């Protein structure tokens, strides 16, 4: 497990209708430093980007407050007992919002996105094993009001997963 800064946007700015905070080159450099090591001291970051420790601390806080980034511990699901991951494509009848909100509330759903294309929603599910995955899909997702169909894409091997958005 290691700590990384995860560049993100607020839910409003992701939908294309909200306004995103402006992030200058120095803030991007700070984000990149934290993406490399989320526990890097502010003094070391300051030296790398040309700011004081206090200025880095203020910028990091502002970036977090604006929803531009968060600093989190990133784990490998396999090493902490979650041996089955899958992407689930979901087709919905009617309004997507209630289904998306219900999925967002499920602990196993790590990623929920409304899409255009073959599916209305795509959900990344992280489970302990195949039985747990079956229970989540069959008993919890498929039974949500409005869910018309699902298609599951079970992960056989994860080859790449990064959180370096916005700095490369």
Could you please describe the fold and organization of this structure?
The chain has 168 residues and is α+β, with helices and mostly antiparallel strands. It is 35% helix and 25% strand. The strands form two sheets. Strands 4-5-3-6 form a four-stranded antiparallel sheet. Strands 1-2 form a two-stranded antiparallel ribbon. Helix 2 (25-36) packs across helix 3 (42-49) and helix 3 packs across helix 4. The relative contact order is 0.17.
Placed side by side, the strands forming the largest sheet appear as 4-5-3-6
Radius of gyration: 19 Å
Low-confidence stretches: 8-17
**Count, helices:** 6
Strand content: 25-35%
**Helix amount, in percent?**
25-40%
The secondary structure category is alpha+beta
Q: Please report the total strand number as a whole number.
A: 6
Taking the sheet with the most strands, its summary is: 4 strands, antiparallel
Give the overall shape, derived from the CA principal axes: elongated
N-to-C span? 23 Å
Give a concise summary.
The chain has 168 residues and is of the alpha+beta class. The chain has helices at residues 11-14, 25-36, 42-49, 53-65, 96-104, 130-141; strands spanning 2-7, 69-74, 84-92, 109-114, 121-127, 147-154.
Q: What structural keywords apply?
A:
alpha+beta; two-stranded antiparallel ribbon; single chain; 35% helix; 6 helices
Write the layout of secondary structure elements.
Layout: E1 2-7, H1 11-14, H2 25-36, H3 42-49, H4 53-65, E2 69-74, E3 84-92, H5 96-104, E4 109-114, E5 121-127, H6 130-141, E6 147-154
Antiparallel strand pairs: 1-2, 3-5, 3-6, 4-5
Helix pairs in contact: 2-3, 3-4
